[in-house]
TrEMBL record:
<feature type="transmembrane region" description="Helical">
    <location>
        <begin position="204"/>
        <end position="223"/>
    </location>
</feature>
<feature type="transmembrane region" description="Helical">
    <location>
        <begin position="12"/>
        <end position="38"/>
    </location>
</feature>
<feature type="domain" description="ABC transmembrane type-1">
    <location>
        <begin position="69"/>
        <end position="282"/>
    </location>
</feature>
<protein>
    <submittedName>
        <fullName>ABC transporter permease</fullName>
    </submittedName>
</protein>
<feature type="transmembrane region" description="Helical">
    <location>
        <begin position="73"/>
        <end position="94"/>
    </location>
</feature>
<dbReference type="InterPro" id="IPR000515">
    <property type="entry name" value="MetI-like"/>
</dbReference>
<feature type="transmembrane region" description="Helical">
    <location>
        <begin position="154"/>
        <end position="183"/>
    </location>
</feature>
<keyword id="KW-1003">Cell membrane</keyword>
<feature type="transmembrane region" description="Helical">
    <location>
        <begin position="106"/>
        <end position="126"/>
    </location>
</feature>
<dbReference type="InterPro" id="IPR051393">
    <property type="entry name" value="ABC_transporter_permease"/>
</dbReference>
<dbReference type="GO" id="GO:0055085">
    <property type="term" value="P:transmembrane transport"/>
</dbReference>
<keyword id="KW-1133">Transmembrane helix</keyword>
<feature type="transmembrane region" description="Helical">
    <location>
        <begin position="264"/>
        <end position="284"/>
    </location>
</feature>
<keyword id="KW-0812">Transmembrane</keyword>
<keyword id="KW-0813">Transport</keyword>
<comment type="similarity">
    <text>Belongs to the binding-protein-dependent transport system permease family.</text>
</comment>
<keyword id="KW-0472">Membrane</keyword>
């Protein structure tokens, strides 16, 4: 049955506000970035010139860009599996428990709700080389204190630990949603068939049925890890010696400290392509899972 003209107009009127907002706050900024990436525009200038692919060619020879890209990938390689594993274990333990489930859900989810910039300040005090609680604990255990955020060899991994702490609660909630969708009859049937071991039931039932949720959590975690900025800006400012500089911080520095907007826009396009690539991987994975099912 075809819709009447009045129904079509009503539908268009309902989607018009969302369409206008998407145009203003999504498509217009993205279009501006793509245009700026092909210019020599510097923040504050009244004129610009189109330079073609010069900004992208400059990226190929820019050691800062490659350093920030590698730091971003290393950070993601640590945070994603760490936050996923901790989130899954937390979800399994809470799902198996019978008491204080609401308390644990709230406690583990608090870092997600809290302002990461405010929490970064707390972490800065905790990691302080002189009076931080981390070094105080190490001294009490007989270990030498360490300047965690000024050591180029470990500073990025310290930020990754903070990233795991901040994001695993979100993954826990997603895994708990997946666990709640698994029929309990399957576990009863497995136990009756001679599979009383919890680990065996996990491999036989839980893990296969959590596959779609796991794919979603993995892709979401990768995208969130690519977006790390607050902790870097608050704790290390990309140092020491660019050991913790990541893509978003490089974009910020190029655009708002060195005023090279065209160069920053080119890096932004690379960042967008990375995020889109990860999203496409999720789409392909879910499509394969649907086809196999």
């Amino acid at each position: 049955m075809s819709l009447s003209a009045s129904q079509n107009r009503a539908g268009l009127a309902l989607i018009a506000p969302a369409s206008v907002l998407a145009l203003l706050f999504l498509f217009a900024p993205l279009s501006s970035i793509f245009v700026l990436a092909f210019t020599d525009y510097q923040l504050g200038d009244r004129s610009l010139s189109f330079v073609g692919f010069e900004n992208f060619e400059a990226l190929a020879d820019d050691p800062t860009f490659w350093k920030s890209l590698s730091n971003t990938l290393i950070y993601s390689a640590v945070v994603v599996p760490g936050s996923m594993l901790l989130g899954l274990v937390s979800a399994l333990l809470i799902d198996a428990g019978t008491s204080l489930r609401s308390f644990y859900r709230t406690a583990f989810f608090l870092p997600v709700m809290a302002s990461l910039l405010a929490m970064a300040v707390v972490w800065e005090f905790m990691l302080h080389p002189s009076f931080g609680i981390v070094n105080a604990t190490m001294k009490a255990l007989g270990f030498a204190p360490h300047n965690w955020l000024k050591d180029g060899g470990i500073a990025l991994y310290v930020l990754a630990v903070i990233g795991i702490w901040q994001s695993f609660g979100f993954n826990m909630v997603l895994f708990m949603a997946g666990l709640s969708a698994i029929p309990r009859d399957l576990y009863d049937a497995a136990e009756m068939d001679g599979t009383p071991n919890a680990w065996a039931r996990f491999k036989l039932i839980t893990w296969p049925l959590l596959a779609p949720v796991t794919v979603f959590v993995a892709v979401t975690s990768v995208i969130r890890s690519f977006q790390v900025f607050d902790t870097v800006h608050a704790l290390t400012q990309g140092g020491p010696n660019k050991a913790t500089e990541v893509l978003l911080y490089t974009i910020y520095a190029e655009g708002f400290e060195f005023f090279r907007s065209g160069h920053a826009a080119a890096i932004t396009i690379v960042f967008i392509l990375l995020v889109v690539g990860v999203s496409l991987l999720r789409f392909v994975s879910l499509k394969k899972n649907g086809a196999s099912a």
